[in-house]
């Protein structure tokens, strides 16, 4: 172990902690990477080689996607979110799945790994596999590589075993990996996306948990969406539920901000919402005269020693929340194919 390795303890989602190491470059950090492995010796060689190329690597032994996500959260909170995810053996399956939950991912590398989820569009993929691997057959690498989108690369680790037990094999894999990663990182001095930019980035991908299930990554937050039974499996709110949640949350936040600014004795806000499709003839003040239209009913409960005048003012303010105004304004939605 070298002085460039720093011990780190990560909190696990199911409780307890995970011991990890952070390999740091001697000079400026060009980017951060996460390495989930099953061989401490090979992982150390890879991490130290990448550190020599300017990458800081957080490495740990795990095959759990939640551990990879937690590791990324740790780097994001304390340094910078990882742009490279590396997985050895079953750790490769974990980083493939995590690439859809870590919005900052630019490149994914698997080493002697079973096939898994395909990384998001425009995420570079390097598949490294030993043709003579007796634990995970080379066919797994073939399935993953064929299914993945470009940019993608494949490197055969001729003569190596599953754990890269021979130091020479580990060194070769590390050198090739470092050279490949360098091609898929921003040039030195390129500013990383700001926290504000990431906060407004939402990525939705299909989930394998249900026919219509979706994984939603909003900045560093994870959500799910689905359709109710029998069409779906009810693994998450419906899209309209999420729309109502956005309006309700925005309404409550707007009321709280106003009450704080005006020093009103507002203790608690609760917003109930319901969406329905109604006939236009049932709406007296709507521009649409025929057919069906959407109606959202919003009921607000205000707890606190408020006067009637204060309650009326809060009701008026509720209609000024940004999401409410967006739903009432002209919205341009630009849709294009990616890749």
UniProtKB/TrEMBL annotation:
Domain (AB hydrolase-1) ranges: 33-210
Protein name: OsmC family protein
Organism from which the protein derives: Kribbella flavida (strain DSM 17836 / JCM 10339 / NBRC 14399)
